[in-house]
Amino acid sequence: MSRIIRVGIIQQSCTADMKYNLQKIYRNIATVAQAGAQLVVLQELHNSLYFCQTEDTRLFDLAEPIPGSSTNFYSDIASTFGIVLVTSLFERRATGLYHNTAVVFDKDGSIAGKYRKMHIPDDPAYYEKFYFTPGDIGFEPIQTSIGKLGVQVCWDQWYPEGARMMALKGAELLIYPTAIGWESSDTKDEKLRQLDAWITVQRGHAVANGLPVISVNRVGHEADPSGQTNGIQFWGNSFVTGPQGELIAQADNYKEENIIVDIDMDRSENVRRWWPFLRDRRIDEFGELTKRFRD
What's the pLDDT at 240? Predict the structure, then answer.
């Protein structure tokens, strides 16, 4: 008999009004939970606007300790609806030390675990190195009442090593809260290439590891507070794939959407029997992967 998990993914826009954002998140979670979702995944840094478009020391005031007010808020939601909930928060670990941290709540409201974003980008309009210290708790899956979740965050999704590490430690799902979009000066063809690459690389993680992948992106336009660019149009397209990279569900480019997806957790077992990539890995020849480059 198949083990089916019903997943709710929430793709939404954000505003400068954090109270409004939280109210909308609550309503959306309620909607998918009432539709039977057992696991709900939110996008990256969902409490606020994507503040990394500029470097501004005042924005560190958005960070908070874990546990803290946001974890209390989401803990109550998880226990109220009896769901496993994947969130993405700006963590204040100590004075001058901050992380981009995913926090997972089990259905009793307890914190099942957290993951600190490992790969930190630094690109125009994505000045994350100014705000976030790279994660230091590794690629550790988080055990929950519905299974072992391999949670990473956004820029991590471009790196096959993280997905593999999660798979090797027993993750049953790969999950990526995300905030990615287009810069207005890119051509239409370039925008399409970027979006296709983003989807393709994550489908590749599903195939290479024989695991379902859940990727939840934000949507909508967010202005650049400095006025130096035209801001970011977050491209949505949140999606779920099965363990052969098959697209099970995909959201719109521009619309807010709540999507319910049923994932057969037993399918990975059969896929890994058909495609035994873990069996055939030449681990005796992979030592040099720990080098920056092979000169």
Answer: 98
* Contact present, 204 and 245 (Cβ < 8 Å): yes
CA torsion through residues 67, 70, 76, 82, sign: negative
| N residues, the chain | 295
- Give one word for 19, left, alpha or beta, with left for phi > 0 and alpha for psi -120 to 50: alpha
Nearest 5°: the CA angle 209, 5, 12 is 90
Structure tokens at 128: 């994350």
Cβ 119 vs Cβ 150: under 8 Å:
no
3-state secondary structure (DSSP) of residue 30: helix
- Identify any residues that bridge with 288 across adjacent strands, giving them in sequence order: none
What's the CA gap between 74 and 26, in Å, rounded? 9
Q: pLDDT value at position 295?
A: 86
Angle at 251 between CA 202 and CA 235, to 5 degrees: 75
Six-digit token string for 12: 């939404």
d(C-alpha 262, C-alpha 197), whole Å: 25
Residues of the chain whose pLDDT is less than 70? 1
The residues assigned a catalytic role are 44, 117, 154
- pLDDT for the residue numbered 1: 53
DSSP 135: P
Exposed / middle / buried, residue 71 (Cβ in 10 Å: 0-12, 13-18, 19+): buried
